[in-house]
Amino acid sequence: MKFLLDDTRRRALRIILVALLAVFGGLSVSAPALGDSVGEEYSATIFGNVKIDGEPIAGVRIVVDGGGYTAETVTDSDGRWSIGVPEVRNYNVTLDESTLPEGISVLEGGATQEVEFGLTDRVAKNFFIGEGERNETSIFDQIVSRFIYGINFGLMLGLAAVGVSLVFGTTGLSNFSHGEMVTFGAVAALIFGVGLQLPLFIAIPIAVALSAGLGWSLDAGLWRPLRKKGLGIVQLMIVSIGLSLTMRYVIQFVIGGGTEQLPGFDAPKMNLFGAVALSSTDLMSMGLSIVVIVAFAYWLLRTKTGKATRAISDNPDLAAASGIDVDKVIRIVWIMSASLAGLAGVLWAYFRPGIKWDMGTQILLLIFAAVTLGGLGTAFGALIGALIVGVLVEMSGLLIPADLKYVGALVVLIVVLLVRPQGLLGRKQRVG
Amino acid sequence: MDWGSILNNTLAGFLTPTTIAFALAALGLAMHFGFAGLLNFGIAGFMAIGGYGYAISVLTFGLPWWAGMLVGVLGSVVFALILGIPTLRLRGDYLAIATIAAAEIARLLFLTTAFTDVTGSADGLFGFNSRPDGSGFQNSNPIPQGTYGFGPFTYNEQTLWVLIFGLIVLTVAVWFLWALMRSPWGRVIKGIREDEEAVRSLGKNVFAYKLQALVIGGVFGALGGIIYTAAQNISPGVYVTSLTFFIWTSLLLGGAATIFGPVIGAVIFWVIQAFLSNVLPELATSGILPVSTTQASTLRFVLVGIGLMLLVIYRPQGIFGDKRELTFVK
Q1: A66-72, long-range: CB within 8 Å, 24+ apart, which pairs?
Q2: What is the dihedral of CA A252, A256, A259, A261, to 10 degrees?
Q3: How far does Cα A367 stand from its chain's mean position?
Q4: DSSP assignment of A41-73, as one string?
Q5: Considering CB atoms only, which of B89, B109, B233 is closest to A407?
Q6: Of A62, A129, A135, A189, whose Cβ has the fewest other Cβ atoms within 10 Å?
Q7: Going by DSSP bridges, is the β-strand pair A44-49/A80-85 parallel, antiparallel, or unpaired?
Q8: What is the DSSP letter of B134?
Q9: End-to-end alpha-carbon separation of chain B, Å?
Q10: Burial of residue B32, with CB atoms counted within 10 A of its CB: 0-12 exposed, 13-18 middle, 19 or more buried
């Protein structure tokens, strides 16, 4: 059942066998005994690790064959196996699929694969295994379902991106510490939702409120004094990098280096239509994002503070001259930016899924890509940019390997800077 | 508390292959930011390309070590051109975002499993410094096997060889930058940093000068990556954006618009890092700090962040810089 839950997200579906053993330096003379070993009398070794979703699978039969030598073993309780071979040459390694759990098979390259020794006499061989019917869904269904995940991801990204855009518009600062504001929201939800066992509908508002407090105190304690001191944009940007490092490692100090989960992260997926399966968490996440974004748009377009914010983005001096309290508006912008980032952090924790000390940093460049694509300083541009980046990241997985899907978004970022640096909605101005 | 070993390990931070690599990369950033005013946040990408260029050409193409290192340098030149030709016309903060994105693209390409055969993906590459056919960097080590030096500065013949080679490269790089900056070319570059329009109005091709500065600084960065790689294995986890920020910290510590500042900044950075990484866990174990040893070693990065902020706010010109030299206006 567990695999069905993960089924929808491709990267999770293709659970990988991980080589836990990093091979150090090719200098290692004595190899540590690994798993269930055969042929230990030989100096050369082929080894591997059979795992699915981090769970080792014991009793999987592995056969090594080549050069007139055949040996077989089964994985131990940690999923590990190791087979000594008499010479350094190519061997065929076979994973006996009949010994895998029901419904699991080798996804890539077939059950028998060739292994080549590199520079050392030890080589790792792992198989991509997972839920067997990989190509069952049609291309069209895949496109549709990826599009939906992309929208979900894009909405989350948009919540984070508008904050960056507002801050840039009003103060000119490219805030590199925004990623940590995202992480902060998730960690706050973790502390109240898991640590103090509060129900989520209380813990998440508390997390957002704490994020708002973070935004307030950062502006009051750091950014406003620095503005008064007259620091340049570049200096402020490097200060935000220092702040980012500080906050990131303070968070690691508090929650450690591991991954934590919020309650309900493994809510079962429901088949909606076609190949589109979403969990209740996904649906709530999308709904919440849309509600918040609509409220935000109302605030920006209809309220007095929202108008003042836009006025400052257009021309701070003129805004100040017409009686707008610039410092007060910027304070509100920081509070808004941090609380939206905090909410995005909670949603990001569900989307990944997991809370980790560097989770915000992972999407910082995607946020920048969204903001740049939409037009620096334009809030709605950031939203559109975020949706495009979100869909692009998810859809690009159809064409390029999953671990390269962020590359597409970053390439788009650079290309946009080249051909249309003002972004989709930005006004043309000299940027070079 | 074993103060003897703490002192010993701290002093050892003065001279390690990593310190030399940081000094070279910081020197590259000094060229980019300190002298030419280019906000390069992708120095980790230049280092990665230098290091991987060296390792891959030795392992995959079987080149001798010196040719491999040249390939690494050439790779960084190409990277600088690809990056610079389109982006150098952008305003400072746009350039920062473009370079940081480019460095991440480079890292993700080295990390992906799509090119495991060549890059080793997450495990990285190893075994390129000593080659069975005798063409490796350590194979041409003239120093006989043994232990050299005294006290904290005790090295085996392999590390000593990397250090000697690294110091030669660093000396040449420092000399080259010094000579460049007192040449007419250097004056134009500084002029561009101060007022691009003024230089343009004198008929100088500002774009070409900036591109040349980007290439030269990028080569320094690649050399840093190569020295780092010559001392150990290469793995993509090293070349993250944090590395860029740590090198920026070294640079701003010493003084961005100085010749020796980046070198001294790198030394100070690593001596402090060595001190903190030894003293903080000790304090935790002996109960003076009420934290676990893992938390204690995280603390030093918190201190790096705070240090970077204080530095930029209160002494942006660095320890050795001249305030007039670095206006930070752009």
Answers
A1: A66/A90, A66/A91, A66/A92, A67/A91, A71/A38, A71/A39, A72/A38
A2: -100
A3: 11
A4: TSSEEEEEE-EETTEE--S-EEEEEETTEEEEE
A5: B109
A6: A135
A7: antiparallel
A8: S
A9: 48
A10: buried
φ/ψ (deg, to 5) at A410 = -70, -35
List the pLDDT tens digit at each of the 432 positions of chain A.
Answer: 333 333 333 333 333 333 322 323 333 333 333 445 677 677 788 888 887 766 778 888 888 887 778 888 888 877 888 888 877 777 888 888 778 777 777 776 677 787 777 656 777 777 777 765 444 567 888 888 889 989 999 999 999 999 999 999 999 899 999 999 999 999 999 999 999 999 989 999 999 999 999 999 999 999 999 999 988 888 899 999 999 999 999 999 999 888 888 888 877 777 777 677 788 888 999 999 999 999 999 999 999 999 999 999 888 889 999 999 999 999 999 999 999 999 999 999 998 888 999 999 989 999 999 998 888 778 888 999 999 999 999 888 888 887 888 898 888 888 887 788 777 777 665 444
> What is the phi/psi pair of residue B309, to 5°?
-65, -50
- Cα–Cα distance for residue pair A340/A159, rounded to 1 Å: 6
Domain A139-419 CATH assignment equals 1.10.3470: yes
Q: What does each C-alpha distance from B119 to A118, A161, B69, B241 come to in angstroms?
A: 12, 33, 16, 19
CA A9, CA A181: separation in Å to the nearest integer?
Answer: 26
3-class secondary structure per residue, B14-56? CCCHHHHHHHHHHHHHHHHHHHCCCCCCCHHHHHHHHHHHHHH
Number of helices (H) and strands (E) in chain B: give both, helices first.
13, 2
Amino acid present at B159: T
Residues of A in contact with B102 (CB under 8 A): 410, 414
Strands A80-85 and A36-38: parallel
Contact A234 B245 (CB under 8 A): no
d(CA B204, CA B328): 22
pLDDT tens track for A112-153: 787 777 656 777 777 777 765 444 567 888 888 889 989 999
Q: Which of B100, B104, B133, B312 to mutate to test the interface with A (most CBs of A within 10 A)?
A: B312
Q: Is the peptide bond before A56 cis (omega within 30 degrees of 0)?
A: no
Domain A6-131 has CATH 2.70.98.10: no
Parse chain A into domains and list their residue ranges: 6-131, 139-419
Contacts A245 to B, Cβ<8 Å: 242, 245, 301-302, 304-305, 308
Q: Which residues of A touch B90 (CB under 8 A)?
A: 417, 421, 431-432
- A351 conformational bin, left if phi > 0, alpha if psi -120 to 50, beta if neither: alpha
Q: pTM of this prediction? A: 0.81
- Decide if A317 contacts A311 (C-beta within 8 A): no
Long-range contacts of B136-140 (CB under 8 A, 24+ apart): B136/B58, B136/B65, B137/B65, B137/B161, B137/B162, B137/B165, B137/B230, B139/B65, B140/B65
Query: Is A230 touching B (CB cutoff 8 A)?
Result: no
Distance CA B118, CA B48 (A): 14
CA A77 to chain B, closest CA, distance in angstroms equals 24
- Read off φ and ψ for residue A353, nearest 5 degrees: -95, 160
Judged by CB atoms within 8 Å, which residues 345-364 of A form the interface with B? 361
Task: Write b or e for each residue in A398-427: b if 16 or more Cβ atoms lie within 10 A of its Cβ, otherwise e.
Answer: eeeebbbbbbbbbbbbbebbeeebbbbbbe
